[in-house]
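Worked example 3. Consider a protein that binds zinc ion.
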Amino acid sequence: MSRVRRIYAIIAIVAVALVGSTAAVNYYYPIFQSSSQKIKVLATFYPVYDYTRNVAGDRADVSLLVPMTVDVHDFEPTPSSIQSVSTANVLVYSGAGLEPWIPQIVAAANNPHLIQVDSSQGIDLIQVPPQFQKDNRAVDPHIWLDPVLAKKQVDNIVQGLNKADPSDQAYFAANAGAYRAKLDLVNSEMVNATVTVATHEFVPFHVAFGYFAKEYGLNQTAVFGPFEDSPSAQDIQNIETVINHDHLCYVGFESLENTSVPDQIAAATHARPILMDPIEGLSIHDQAVGKTYLIKLQDDINNILIALNHVGPEFGC
Ligand SMILES: [Zn+2]
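Given these inputs, the predicted complex is written out as structure tokens:
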């Protein structure tokens, strides 16, 4: 059926429905597409963008709202953000308060047929410690760093794509299944590896690994809080005390943040800086060498396991 005929068909169906019931004002119709017109999906930041691309395959044009190299915590929407939302069929966001500007840009975009996917739906959210709560934000948004929760995010994205393009449900389900299997592998590795670790303590740069730590029975003591901020002199002093007291050998740094503070902490303790990346974007270097969310997560797991297995004076710490 041509696109024009499909549109006439939709109009006819809606007209019949309205004649049949004058109360039928909230009718729903899917976004029909010809083979030459893919659904347009807008994903807010890098991890949900990567999940969506893997699920959507060649059946959608997936674009990214927060520029790849911008830390999502630092992002402020622009008029072009609203323009992108106004022309999208589906908006995928991470949720759990990561993108507090979502209601504002959706309202401004005035796109009544927009399908919104809150990828955190159905996930048990955890509170951030009181000392890190800020601007009435008390929920930890960093769900994507736990591969088990990432699978739930993928499932939510599948549901949104199915609504926009019901004819490709089987294709999306197959892609999602393959992606979930990769997340299962990462999870299994971490479950097995944490059975024998030397310590359960690790020091990322900011409080990004709460869900990850909960999943694997670990404890993060970060340099500073979960929202956009920078560490105070007291934060730095506190973390140096923890590192010295617990004889920890590593302090985390991030790919999109200046490394001067982790370097300073390393210089003042026996710890060495190591990448523990919250994957809140993708640096130019990471893009150039072909990193993906899954590769970055594997890098994090490798490095966190190094930190968990190197502790104490025998390692010079
Ligand atoms: Zn963060």
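Take a moment to read the result before moving on. The chain has three domains: 1-30, 36-187, 193-315. The first strand starts at residue 39 and ends at 43.
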